[in-house]
Amino acid sequence: MEDQMSQMESSIETIINIFHQYSVRLGHPDTLIQKEFKQLVQKELPNFLK
């Protein structure tokens, strides 16, 4: 029987997956350069900037 992930585990996995969508574009694949971070925030967190 496969254990189902908790809501928090699933949410963290989603955050990590989105992070990696941006981090692999330029530089080291496990870090964000300023340009990647800016793109992530603008696209994924538009209400955060309001």
UniProtKB/TrEMBL annotation:
Tell me which domain of life the UniProt entry assigns to the organism this sequence originates from: Eukaryota
* All residue ranges annotated as the S100/CaBP-9k-type calcium binding subdomain domain in the record: 8-50
Endoplasmic reticulum is among the record's keywords: no
Which GO BP terms apply? antimicrobial humoral immune response mediated by antimicrobial peptide; astrocyte development; autocrine signaling; chronic inflammatory response; endothelial cell migration; leukocyte migration involved in inflammatory response; neutrophil aggregation; neutrophil chemotaxis
Main subcellular location of this protein, as a coarse class: membrane
Key word Disulfide bond present: no
Q: Which residues form a coiled coil?
A: none
The entry's cellular-component GO terms read: cytoplasm; extracellular exosome; nucleus; plasma membrane
GO terms of molecular function: calcium ion binding; calcium-dependent protein binding
Q: Which Gene3D superfamilies match?
A: EF-hand
Q: Which UniProt keywords apply?
A: Calcium, Cell membrane, Cytoplasm, Membrane, Metal-binding, Phosphoprotein, Repeat, Secreted, Zinc
Membrane-traversing stretches: none
Location in or out of the cell: Cell membrane; Cytoplasm; Secreted
Output this protein's name: S100 calcium binding protein A9
Organism this protein belongs to: Bos mutus grunniens
The gene coding this protein:
S100A9
